């Protein structure tokens, strides 16, 4: 254990055992405990991306701005790497490496530490979640990978990354979208709001039909939600069919539940009605409220 602690840096093992991880705290701990002798210059050609890096697309304009800054001021903050069989894997700082290469640098300052695969995965996800906006699909894939590799529940993952359980569930639901529609989200042709509505349908043809309307006719999320109310699309049986006057005093409850469940919610006659679009959408809602089938 002492060898592992020295390899990671003092106090880092304790951080990874915490329920909620913060990548800034992790990196700060490494930088503060590293000696000058531990900061080394590594050849950029010997560096490889973290295999668990969730970001697949990097903003070229942002990289160019960082590259210009590096040309003028150099790389202020060392990257963090792990020694691999051949070369090094980047734990934190891939953008700095890419920008440094763009700036024509051959070497970058680095701190070498030993990490498990699980820790590499957690840092890669957290660095992107806490510092830059991942696309909704990239974030969803990262959550799916962590759940599978770490063998944890959605609730445990939510605590670990500082997100709500419903956020995790709703993002994972986006992975039901066909690959071509996922690409539209990554290319910013569809917003996350659009994607969440589309992911509630069972039929891929309906998903694509709606996606075409969004792109070609510039439909808003509200307009798409209105279209799903028509009989043209599969709807669910509501929990209470008899029409009752809306109770305004419970509007705040409707709003809170609608936000949490990402579904239309009505409070009528001392009953709560939750609308869903498909069986998959119903299962998503049951997952959020932790009801087992």
Write the layout of secondary structure elements.
Blueprint: H1 2-8, H2 12-17, H3 23-33, E1 39-43, E2 47-48, H4 60-73, E3 79-83, E4 88-92, H5 94-102, E5 107-112, H6 117-131, H7 136-150, H8 154-161, H9 165-173, H10 179-186, H11 192-198, H12 204-217, H13 221-227, H14 251-261, E6 265-268, E7 271-274, H15 279-288
Helix pairs in contact: 4-5, 6-7, 7-9, 8-9, 9-15
Structure characteristics:
five-stranded mixed sheet, alpha/beta, two-stranded antiparallel sheet, Conserved hypothetical protein from pyrococcus furiosus pfu- 392566-001, ParB domain, 15 helices, single chain
Short description:
The protein is of the alpha/beta class and 293 residues long. 52% of the residues lie in helices and 11% in strands. The protein has a domain at 2-131: Alpha-Beta Complex (Conserved hypothetical protein from pyrococcus furiosus pfu- 392566-001, ParB domain).
Helicity range of the residues?
40-55%
Rg over C-alpha atoms, rounded to the nearest angstrom? 23 Å
Shape: elongated
Distance between the termini: 43 Å
SSE order:
HHHEEHEEHEHHHHHHHHHEEH
Provide the β-strand percentage band: 5-15%
CATH topology of the domain at 2-131: Conserved hypothetical protein from pyrococcus furiosus pfu- 392566-001, ParB domain
Overall structural class, as computed from helix and strand content, comes to alpha/beta
The CATH architecture term of the domain at 2-131 is: Alpha-Beta Complex
CATH C-level class of the domain at 2-131 is Alpha Beta
| Oligomeric status | single chain
The strands making up the biggest β-sheet line up spatially as 1-5-3-4-2
Query: Tally the helices: what do you get?
Result: 15
